[in-house]
From TrEMBL:
Organism: Oldenlandia corymbosa var. corymbosa
Gene3D superfamilies: 1.20.1250.40
Keywords: DNA-directed RNA polymerase, Nucleus, Transcription
Annotated spans, Disordered: 116-151
Taxonomic placement: Eukaryota, Viridiplantae, Streptophyta, Embryophyta, Tracheophyta
Protein name, as recorded: DNA-directed RNA polymerase III subunit RPC9
PANTHER family listed in its UniProt record: CALCITONIN GENE-RELATED PEPTIDE-RECEPTOR COMPONENT PROTEIN, DNA-DIRECTED RNA POLYMERASE III SUBUNIT RPC9
Amino acid sequence: MKILEEYAGALTNFEVLDFLRSKVNGKDPKTQLSPSEFKVYDYLEQTAASVQTRDIVNKFINECKSYDLAPAEILNIINIRPASEVEVYTIIEDCENRSGIDTEKLVETVVQVLPAPPTEMEHDEGAAANEEEAVANEEETADKDQNEVTA
């Protein structure tokens, strides 16, 4: 392999995950991830990068043009996917003193364009399922107790 450019720029977590996925799904069956690559792959599969697509990332970058953000700030927003204004303030340098940045609108854009990490979606679905199961168990226990009292 020949290195064309030593440093071509920073990558989003999605781009790194996409590269690792293509390496795993390559045609050469001998190609495997090294232990460090596997750890990165495993970590990124649990982040928002695992549910992002190139179209979503490009759409978000286009949406951010109106906010006058630095490329590094956009990259961090894509990677971190802040869901509150507090999180945005930690990403954008001198956010409160910069004009042209409506943090509330930026958070809305993030939430609308960038998908939530799978752990949040699974947690919400799992919590609902666990709640339904708990209610069913309580009803079953109450029925058993009622039957024992009447017997």
